[in-house]
Amino acid sequence: MRLNDALLGAILLGFAGWVWWMTTFFPAFPGQDYGPNLFPRILACGIALCGAMLVLRGLRQRAPLVAVDGWMRDPAKLVSFLLIPGATLFYVLASDRLGFIPTAFAILLALALWFRARPLVALPVAAGVTLAVHWFFSGLMRVPLPRGLMDPLL
Amino acid sequence: MDALIQAFGLVFDPSVLVVILLSAVFGMFVGAMPGLTATMATALLVPVTFFMPPIPALGAIVTATAMAIFAGDIPAAMLRMPGTPASAAYADESYEMTKKGQLNLNMGVNLVFSVAGGLVGVVVLIAAAPALAEVAINFSSFEYFWLACLGLTCAVFLTNADAVKGFLSLFLGLLLATVGIDPSAGFPRFTFGEVELMQGINFIATMIGMFAVSELLRGAVTVRDAGHVVVQQVGDMFRGLGAVWRRYWFNFLRGSVIGTVIGALPGAGADIAAWISYAVSKRFSKEPEKFGTGHVEGIVDSTSANNSALGGAWIPALVFGIPGDSITAIVIGVLYMKNMNPGPTVFTENPQLIYSVFLIFILANLIMLPLGWAAIKSARQMLRTPRNLLLPCILLFCIVGSFAMTNSLYGVVLMLVMGLFGWFLEEHGIPVAPLILGLVLGEMLEQTFVQSMIKADGHYLEFFARPIAGVLGVATLLIWGVMLARGIMRSARR
User: Fold this and answer.
1) Which pLDDT band holds residue B27 (cuts at 50, 70, 90)?
2) Mean pLDDT lowest for which of B200-204, B354-358, B456-460?
3) Distance (Å) from the C-alpha of residue A92 to the closest C-alpha of chain B?
4) Which of A87, B273, B352, B469 could, after both became Cys, cross-link B305 (CB 3.0–4.6 A)?
5) Which sequence ranges are marked TM in the entry (chain B) (predicted)?
């Protein structure tokens, strides 16, 4: 997926304006000429400049407003792509309640099966990797991975 | 001298050696798998090394990256798929050699010259870093300001991408670095009242997102229709190497020196070193017509260059705290986490740390010879690892790694956002490396800039008054001028 340079530039101009507007709320300190707003403002100007140049370039090119790659029209490939953020979001939403082990196992198994791994291979790999990661991070390195449903067992 | 003995004791501790060996195997594997890069190996290693003392943590990173850069050559020759971007420059050439039946020689050349090139990079690092540190000890905010500017400018200048997009990426990175408590007045900026954002954007979660998750997004699209990989077995890879040495020793030296210098320039790493030294090799070759037909000459240059670049990149990282490439950008993040702020004072206060890094570098390059040999011999099995199982596992490592960096879901969310953002940027031809450099250097740049502005008090010539600051400042302005002129000429031609 590719936005036209002009559209991308326009978004950046808007973003730079928002950054500048945010800096107007930063406090000034009497007797101190260079406060917390100086550097972000310079950067906002830089981003705006890049945005303006992209707008100029985009208007000359006449590319479509949004160009979509071939694979995005293939539903299976689109699902493969969306599964990566989807699985991560699932972890964010479910791991506290379910616990690390069930969540990680579900993610590994679902992804591997969707990517056409054989169930007889995917099952032991998902289980083994989940337990190994849990042992290493939770056991060895004392990372507080969520226990969730497994709390009584662990 | 005491420090050197101490360093020996630190590095040759059995547990450190085990960590080095394990990370070497890990690096070999990640480097040899197409689509998994050396930077990704580093980003995934950091959460694992987070709880280790500094020496094994640094040892793991140095070893894994050195192995990964070499191992990238293996699938380049066998499958025409570079294992890491650093091998892309000569993947076609290597594959042509394989087609001519010279896979054995090709693997031997790649292995031996990677080791030798890596050692040249280390020698330069050992010679240059302490000397530079002695100069740097007298630097004031003006020098550091210009050094940071010059480094960031180089990062844009060297990335082949167009300058507007390079600078855009850089500004976005610097802006991300302003999130959190500001260094001059202690005011929380762009935090929206979130406590997690007060400490700033977590650097490692960002790196994992930008370098690993965005790669997974690209890989996920093709993983379902990946076919089976057929790879030849490699025989005696050391036969015929002597002749290559005698004939192309100058190419080796030239490639290693170019690699080290490019590695030392901020923002450009092993991949650009390989491209440039391959081009130089072709330009000055006596038989340039043979390039592209499976000719070993260009490979000698560039396979030496990408490994020597690794050592070179550590020079500015250790001396000034300015990363030479995206791998050392992560290293600087690690050093800060371990409360060992890189800079010239490390050389006087913690010399045993510096010597340990040198020792690990030498050790890593030496064990590359047997381990690389083993990796080439087992390439058939390694390259058959099914990607449909590997991809989900890497995603899980990313999630757990980011979680471990913050001990909260904030890290995971940040990783996801940055992964999608990094993917979006690359889709638009906007390079990610300047952004990462901006994020690492943002605080230093702002701090030295504001300090210098206060010192100068409106007299802007003060920025050029000290001799080294003057030279650095003029050099930075010159590069800006060249880039501006190039841009104007390009748009006038259209």
Assistant:
1) very high
2) B456-460
3) 6
4) B273
5) 7-30, 50-71, 109-132, 144-160, 167-185, 197-217, 313-337, 353-376, 388-421, 463-485
**With a CB-CB cutoff of 8 Å, which residues 78-137 of chain B face chain A?**
none
Of A46, A57, A154, nearest to A102 by C-alpha is A154
Record: contact B221-A38, CB cut-off 8 A = no
Contacting residues for A54 by C-beta, under 8 A, at least 6 apart: A5, A6, A8, A9, A12, B164, B168
What Cα–Cα distance (Å) separates residue B144 from each residue in B133, B335, B343, B410?
13, 19, 11, 33
Q: What are the extents of the domains in chain B?
A: 2-493
Residue B25 has which token pair?
A: 């195997």
Model pLDDT for residues B394-409, shown as the tens digit of each residue: 999 999 999 988 889 9
Say how far apart CA B417 and CA B378 lie, in whole Å: 37
Q: Is residue B473 within 8 Å of residue B456, measured between CB atoms?
A: no
CA distance B360 to B183: 35
Cβ atoms of B395 and A87 within 8 Å: the answer is yes
Exposure b/e, B5-17, CB count within 10 A at least 16 = b = eebeebbeeeebe
- 3-class secondary structure, B236: coil
Contacts of A84 in chain B (CB under 8 A): 213, 216-217, 220, 395, 419
Kindly determine whether residue B395 and residue A95, on different chains, have CB atoms separated by under 8 Å: no
CA distance B213 to B211: 6
Q: Which residues of B touch A43 (CB under 8 A)?
A: 171, 174-175, 178
Give the list of residues 6+ apart from residue A31 with CB closer than 8 angstroms, or none: none
Confidence at residue B228, expressed as pLDDT on a 0 to 100 scale = 64
Locus of tokens 């930077």: B39
Q: How far apart are CA A84 and CA A93, in angstroms?
A: 14
* SS3 (DSSP) at B181: strand
Residues 270-309 of B with CB under 8 A from A: none
Instruction: State the pLDDT confidence band at A89, using cuts at 50, 70 and 90.
Output: very high
A22, A57, A111 ranked by CB distance to B395: nearest? A111
Q: Which residue has the higher pLDDT, B182 or A41?
A: A41
Cross-chain residue pair A34–B453, CB shorter than 8 Å: yes
Q: What is the C-alpha separation between A120 and B396, in angstroms, rounded?
A: 20
Q: Choose among A92, A96, A111: nearest Cβ to B392.
A: A111
Set of chain B residues whose Cβ sits within 8 Å of the Cβ of A144 = 407
Which residues on chain B are in Cβ contact (under 8 Å) with A32? 185
3-state secondary structure of B180: strand
Quick one: pLDDT at residue B494?
A: 60
Give CA–CA dist B158/B43, Å, rounded: 23
Give residue-wise pLDDT tens across range B204-262.
899 899 988 998 998 888 887 766 667 778 888 888 888 999 999 999 999 999 999 99
Looking at beta carbons, which residues of chain B come within 8 Å of A33? 453-454
User: Alpha-carbon distance B348 to A115, whole Å?
Assistant: 53
Helix (H, G, I), strand (E, B) or coil at B37: coil
Please identify among residues 42-101 of chain A the ones whose CB lies closer than 8 Å to any CB of chain B: 43-44, 46-47, 50-51, 53-54, 57, 60, 71, 76-77, 80-81, 83-85, 87-89, 91-92, 95-96
Tens of pLDDT, residue by residue over B338-347, are 877 888 888 8
Can you count the helices (H) and strands (E) in chain B? 23, 2
